[in-house]
Amino acid sequence: MPKKRVCMFFNDLALYRKAIYKMLDKEYDCDWYIEDIDTGVKEFDDSELKNVERLPVKTLGPFYRVDGLSKILKKDYDIFFMLGATRNLSLISFCLKKKIFYPQKRVYFWTHGYYGKESWIEKTLWKRPIMKFADGIFTYGDYARKLMIDDGFDEKRIYPIHNSLDYEHQLNLRKEMVGSDIYSLHFNNENPVLIFIGRLTEIKRLDLFLEAVGVLNNQGESYNVVFVGDGSEKQNLVSLTFKLGIQEQVWFYGACYDEKTNAELIYNADLCIAPGNIGLTSIHALMFGCPAISHDRWDLQMPEFEAIKPSITGDFFKYGSVEDLALKIHRWFENKKDCKEEVRNACYEEIDTNWNPYYQMNVILKNLK
User: pTM here?
Assistant: First the structure.
């Protein structure tokens, strides 16, 4: 029996999605259509997939349209696996034409779904009507799925697909990891190490991180802090370390694009702190056995917060509260100081079970029909 013809339509060929995209390319008789616009995300090369075509994009204020999207409907595809971007005006036209002229074809969205912060107008007049066109919806997480079910969507048509990084490469690196003295040599002490890896930007609220360390210092608890990354907030953060008197405890390692080095830095840290939305930082940290703490406002989080299981793979603090962040750091080490291997293995299990391209591919094969 011949394979079904599948149209893949996404906004970019993000490097971190390379593994799952190549699995899809191998499994299905498919063509790829990619929005021809710079999303700021590092991409992999088009030539690594069978057939890739870039479609021109025109922005219209907060919305945009994709030229040529509706024409794809006329081609011999049985299934359309698409980015469910509700700000894409062309998606509305596409779905309407599909419903009227090609009802036998199937459309599936891969999307964030609901965040929980949508206004009544945005949800009722925009998001819900567009999402209703889909034959199935692949959400990044269970939180979005629950919100959509609560809003009347059929639970049988919503499939949490999670997210993943370069799992196979990172898994091979993880198998090579051993404890090192990288931090004791730099800081000249054996204090617990708190790490953040990612862009140093305002939305990450890393000022809360430093202020919490300052609070803990005043309570007689000393921690080492490592920032792996660079960004617009670096100088402000450097200045804050001097203001708080913790400059000797903070290492601005800088941006690092060597994954083996990143793996060593994460593996040898004790706890990842991400006071803003944590996103893929949680997957990166847990992959190498480092638990993570982030804030508890799910509507302001990215879907990957779901990898954090309180008291198992990390914890959550009260949104915006320096005092609660300091308390959660204190309690983590108070309760887990003798459980490092147990915690490390729990982090591994969470990623190996739920946040890798094999998990994603199983969800797709089961539901893309």
Answer: 0.93
